[in-house]
Amino acid sequence: MKKTGILNRHLAGALAELGHGDGVLVCDAGMPIPAGPRVVDLAFLAGVPSFAEVLDGLLGELVVEGATAAEEIREANPEASALLDGRFPDLTLVSHERLKEMTAGARLVVRTGEARPYANVLLRCGVFF
After folding, report:
1. Do the beta carbons of residue 109 and residue 32 sit within 8 Å?
2. pLDDT along the chain (129 residues), means of 10
3. Residue 119: which of 43, 55, 44 has the closest Cα?
4. Active site members
5. What are the residues facing 25 on neighbouring strands?
6. If 0-12 CB within 10 Å is exposed, 13-18 middle and 19+ buried, where does residue 29 land?
7. DSSP code string of the chain
8. Closest to 120 (Cα-Cα) out of 2, 48, 31
9. How far is 57 from 72, CA to CA, in rounded Å?
10. Burial class, 69, CB count within 10 angstroms (exposed 0-12 / middle 13-18 / buried 19+)
11. Cβ–Cβ < 8 Å for 126, 67
12. Largest separation between any pair of C-alpha atoms in the chain
C-alpha cells in the first residue's frame, strides 16, 4: 500500500499513463464531460473534495507546462481565479464554451465535488527532464 501521494487507485493509475502534452481537466461537479476522455470522479458531496484540494494534490504528482481556464472565472469565482493565478502565472484564458470544446481532447478528466461556478482548469502535462 502507498503511504504518500494520491491513494485513489483509479486516479493514481490514470496519472501513471499520462505523457508529455496530454491534457488533464480538473473540474467542478457541474462541468459537462464529453464522451472520450477517461474520467475519475472524486465527487462525494457538494464541495467535497474541493477544487483546490484536488488541484494541489495533482500538482504534487504531475509536471505541468501549461494551464487553461474559462475567462468567466474572473467575475463568477474570484477565489478560484486567485488560486489559479497563484499556481499558474501564465494561465491562458478562453471562453467557457471553448474550454468545453477543448475538454473533448483531454486524456483525463478529474471531477471534484466543487460547487462554485467555473472551477475548471485544463492542465497540459510536461516532462521532468
Report:
1. no
2. 92 98 98 96 98 98 98 98 98 98 97 98 97
3. 55
4. 20
5. 109, 122
6. buried
7. ---SS---HHHHHHHHT--TT-EEEEE-TT----SSSEEEE---BTTBS-HHHHHHHHHTT--EEEEEEETTHHHH-HHHHHHHHHH-TT-EEE-HHHHHHHHTT-SEEEE----STT--EEEEE----
8. 31
9. 24
10. buried
11. no
12. 43
Those residues whose C-beta lies under 8 Å from the C-beta of residue 102, and which sit 6 or more positions away, are: 23, 68, 94, 122
d(CA 27, CA 85): 16
Length of the chain: 129
Closest CA to 123 of 60, 55, 53: 55
Distances in whole angstroms, Cα of residue 18 to Cα of each of 10, 23, 64, 81, 106: 13, 8, 11, 26, 11
Q: Cell numbers at residue 95, please?
A: 471562453
Identify the residue whose cell numbers are 458531496: 45
pLDDT at 76: 98
